[in-house]
Amino acid sequence: MSKIVGLTGGIATGKSLVSSFLNQQGIPIVDADQITRQVEAKDTLGLDAIVTEFGVSILQSDGQLNRQLLGQIVFSDVEKLRLLVRTIDPFIRNQITKEIRNLASHPLIVLDSPTLFENGYQQLVDEVLMVSCTANIQLQRLMSRNQLSITQANQRIKAQWPIEIKQLLADYVIYNSDTKDKTYQQVVGWLNKQQVF
């Protein structure tokens, strides 16, 4: 039976760095962000459900979802963010479950989800691995990566649970405030403790 590990972290803390490293070690990754894009793609039931709640103005002229516009709407209004999560979550959860089932022959499967706790996906996993960094580094990385103002970056950080809470709920924490090599060393240390190989 597969061991399923939830990989999470605050936005811009380095979760993708760890996810990519684990994948390079031959561990299959179920990527919740990728799944979200799939279920919100043009001509899907997921996108239809979002349009029903938010109107056709969130679509681009080619019928694709205008992610930037939707992001501006939901990250500046917590109720609209909750509405979006309620609307799209059943589609995401269904696809996550399907992908995990398809990987059942692997001893270790990683569910990569930035909102693992916020959306209750920790119920789908056996253990939670959390990637953390200092608040200042997180803010600087997010502003630089997404070309956001300090206000916009703080809105997105505040839309997720505080890093400190996630750390308390996680089974294992990787600290990613230093070099990539130091982060990788911690991941290897965690991997060596897994009793699945």
Describe this structure in words.
- Its EC number is 2.7.1.24.
- Pathway: Cofactor biosynthesis; coenzyme A biosynthesis; CoA from (R)-pantothenate: step 5/5.
- This is Dephospho-CoA kinase.
- There is one protein chain.
- The protein is α/β, with parallel strands linked by helices.
- The protein folds into two domains: 120 residues, 3-Layer(aba) Sandwich (Rossmann fold), CATH 3.40.50; 70 residues.
- It is 52% helix and 13% strand.
- It has a five-stranded parallel beta sheet with strand order 2-3-1-4-5, with helices on both faces.
- α2 packs across α5.
- The longest helix is centred in the middle third of the chain and has 25 residues.
- The model has no long low-confidence stretch (mean pLDDT 94).
The number of helical elements comes to 9
The percent range for strand residues is 5-15%
Task: Quickly give the CATH architecture of the largest domain.
Answer: 3-Layer(aba) Sandwich
Shape field: globular
Number of strands: 5
Strand count, sense and closure of the main sheet? 5 strands, parallel
The CATH topology of the largest domain, please?
Answer: Rossmann fold
Quaternary organisation of the protein chains: single chain
Based on CA atoms alone, the radius of gyration comes out at 17 Å
State the CATH class of the largest domain: Alpha Beta
Q: Overall mean pLDDT score?
A: 94
* Unreliable stretches covering 5 or more consecutive residues: none
The CATH homology group name of the largest domain = P-loop containing nucleotide triphosphate hydrolases
Distance between the terminal alpha carbons, to the nearest Å? Answer: 12 Å
Order of helices and strands: EHEHHHHEEHHHEH
Number of domains: 2
